[in-house]
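Notebook, bench 3.
Goal today: get a predicted structure for Ankyrin repeats (3 copies) from Bremerella volcania so we can plan the truncation constructs. The sequence was checked against the plasmid map this morning, with no discrepancies at the termini. Length recorded as 304 residues. Pasting the sequence as submitted so the record is complete.
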Amino acid sequence: MAMITTTWSMFRSRYGITIGIVWLSFMQAFFFGCQEKQPVSFPKPVQTLLKPKTVRHTIAQSEGWQPKDFFQAEESRRICEAISAGDQVTLERLLKQSPDVNVTGKYGLTLLHWAFAEENMGAFQTLLKNGANPDLKLSENVPHKIYDVTFVEDSNIFFSSIQCLRPAYCTAALPYSDDPKQPILGGSSMLHLILSRMPCPANEEDIDAMLKHGIEVNTQGAFGYTPCHWAVHNAPRLCVPLLEAGADPSIQDEKGRDVADAVDFQIAEAQKLGRNIQEYEPVIEWLSENYRPIDTQRPSGNAP
C-alpha cells in the first residue's frame, strides 16, 4: 500500500492530476486483485427434515379413555395406570396385594378389557394367570369414537379381539375360558367370527388353538355357512388346514351349496375379473383328491 502511495505522488507531479488518478485506479485494481480471494460465505443449507415417525395409538388412547372413566376403586385405577404405562413391575406388585381382578367397572368393562384396549399383551397374560376371567361380558355398549362394533353389550374379550383384528389376544385367553365353545354374538362360534372378518386376521396357529380347545369345525352359523365356507371366501389359505382337521366339504349352506360349490364360484369370479387363482390351488388339489374335481371352467352362478 505504501508503494502505491509513493508512486501516486510521482505520477501526479510528472503527469498531472488526471493521469495520476487513472494510474492509481489501475494500481489498486492490480494490487487487490492479486490478493488471495476469500471464499464467499453462504448460509448453511437447512438440513432436510426427517419425516416424523408415525405414532401408533392404542385403542384406549384413540378413544381418549382414562381409568377414572370406568373404575371407582383406587386399586383398580392404579392397576390400569400401571398397564397403560407398561410398568410390569408395578402391576405384579399390585396384583400381589390380592385385588379383585374380575372387578367390573362402568359398562361392565374389566381389567382384562383395559389391558386389551392398551394393547399390552404382557399385562393381559399376567391378569389371566392371576385369575382374570375372559368370559365376562359387557353389560352395555361402551361409548366410542372409532371402534364402533368392538365393545358392545353382551360381548366378551374374545369378540372384541377378533373384531379389532387382534386374534393373538383371543388365542392367549382360550386356555382360561370356562367354555371355549361358547357362541359369540349372533350364535356363531369363534371360528365363524374370525373367518368371516375381512380381511381375515387368522393364521394357522390361531385355527389350531381354537380346534385344540374344542371349537367345532362343522357347526353352521349365518347363511348356513360352516367355518370352511367362510374360509373359501375370506381366507383360502386356511381351507386345507380346516379340511384336514375334519371340516366336512359336503355340508350345504342355506342355498344348498357345499364347500366345493363355493370354491367353484370364487374361481369363476376371479377368472371373470382377470385375477390369479393361485391362492385356491391347495384347496382345489385337496378337494379333487378327497371329494370331487373342481371344474375351473364352470360358469359362476349366484354368490353362495
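The domain at 59-178 is CATH 1.25.40.20 (Serine Threonine Protein Phosphatase 5, Tetratricopeptide repeat). The longest helix spans residues 17-33.
Flagging this for group meeting.
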